[in-house]
Amino acid sequence: MRQILLTNFQRKKVGRKSYHQLCPEIITELKNLLNTHSGSAQDRRRDDAIRFNGLSIVDCNKHIKKRLMKKYSIINKISNSTVRRYFLPPKNNIQSSKYYKSRILAKIPQKRNSQSIKEHNDFHFTCAMVNYVEELSSLYSDEILALSCDNKSKIPLGAPAVSRYVRSRKFHLVENQPNLPDHDFPRRGIRINPSAYVVLSNIRKRSSSVDNHPSCELKTKKRSRSCDIQLFPDIKQRTIMTTDKRNLEHVIWSRTGQLFIRPFGSGTDQSIKATSEVHINNIQQITTENNMIFHKSVITIISDNGPDWSTDCMANIYNLGRFWEEQKLDALVWVSYAPGHSRFNPIERMFSRLTDLLQGVVIDLDPSFKETSQQLDMALIELSKYWNNKTYCNYKIDCRPMFSVNGNIFDGHEKLKNLLMTKSQIQIEQNPNVQFSLQLYLRHCVRSTYYMSFIKCDDKYCVHCPRYPIRATKTMSLLRAGGGYIPWPTMTYSNKHYDTFLQRTFSILSGEKNLNPDEHLLSRSKVKCSKCKLPYVFLSKADKDRHNQWIHAPTTKLKRSSIQGNKIKKLDSLIYLDCVIKEMLCCSPPFTETYRTLTTDYYLPISGAKLFKGDQIFIPIYNLAIDTELWSVDPNQFYPKRFLDQD
């Protein structure tokens, strides 16, 4: 009955029939054509010498005329616009969209470059680990400073800073539109390398119904499979909690914050490049100037796993350990995504804003300066004018160039890297300071493929940790409960999903043993150092050999014997001097002179007066580094014998 009514009251169309009504095979033929020549379909083929990637309207029109002309002679008159209107309209919110039939779901696509080269086997694992670290940073935001770091693509000089093929989104007067050259001739070998750092804002929004607890204290209760609000009574669900598709709870962590840029010129010198030493110096300067670690003593860092951050480089481990020691941090945690997936790093989305600010801009060297380094400094100043004090997500961008006069910040990394790559026992013995510092850092280091952390120990004989009490008590309590590192991702309840951070945290606090780092990693076999107290995963056989040579080599055992007495005395003196200077700087006001006992007869260089062995003298602190014969050492006080005998 309904069909009869629709037939009776349906309005009869007047005029000639549409082409797809006269030739019903047009739609089918066009669909088959596009399916054959689409980009994704072509990628599945392996035997074609000629490749196709989409078709134009003219190609579609020619094809259907060639295939259907004999059967439908009227199709010879079909126009390109008629064929175009069988497809989707370019925009649905324009008036001309009503003329499109949309019988074929095809249109000119927007540019996309989000496809990874190939999903890495460890991608799922690294996503879970990054979420664990950042949820921890958000949970204890009053104790932890979260950073995201990366290098933006290098900016050429003498050519458009942004490719001329990228359409500008800015308005210009018609008579003053930018006109870029039809060919790019950038300065050969000279680029601007912007190093960028984001301080992720995990500060929670307060309301009148939320109490004034500074952060959440996870309480240990009986383990449960679920992680509802009853397990964490101090967590305010409205402010920091969210649920996923499986209805499991997560701690919300921020993907944005204040952006700091430190561009520098590269190409004039092979040693001037982005290294872990440069990044650490920049982070130290940023955190110190902005008082970021005045109340926070734990730092987490997200970055890519490139050569300037990779845990496979011993120099990177040394520089991160130096940063942990000099800043007196309770813990320093570094984590990264799997190779090929660095686009998930929060800082990556901020680079698009920097690109927009440089569209249509050409930065070149200023010929009024003779030196190339000076010309490059002026180019850095010009670049900073486009970025500095601009805003992103209501945060001001801080852009300060690194001038050539500060070139010494690039010195030392390659030398340190080459030194730590050596296996020569002679070179190791000639650098006792580096060896001692490296041993100190690795006694507090957890190292794996995509994770590295430095954490204070509870050893009262440690030369570093007892002098600086722990401030981040909640964070350190959780890390120590997990064996000195974060709860390690694992699949307990599902074979396709990792447990949430709250589930793993509650399991650790309930007494469950944490997994060893890289225990279930899919990409490589894992070998852990059996002599280190904290887990230290070897990434290669060469890495294992270097580690054993620097840290556990039998020939480097420092024992008090007649043969090695002079070497031990020299090493003890350097360590003692380092401790004395640090103690001097900790005093307020710092003292500048001290008493010492002569270890041998000595003549004063100015007056010629003779001093005898055992005399008490009063000398300036700065002379300790010069007159090493004027004082005796007490190595057991600053360098316990158990460290000398340790493997």
TrEMBL record:
Short name of one Pfam family: p450
GO molecular function annotations of the record: heme binding; iron ion binding; monooxygenase activity; oxidoreductase activity, acting on paired donors, with incorporation or reduction of molecular oxygen
InterPro entries cross-referenced by the UniProt entry: Cyt_P450, Cyt_P450_sf
Family membership: Belongs to the cytochrome P450 family.
Protein name, as recorded: Uncharacterized protein
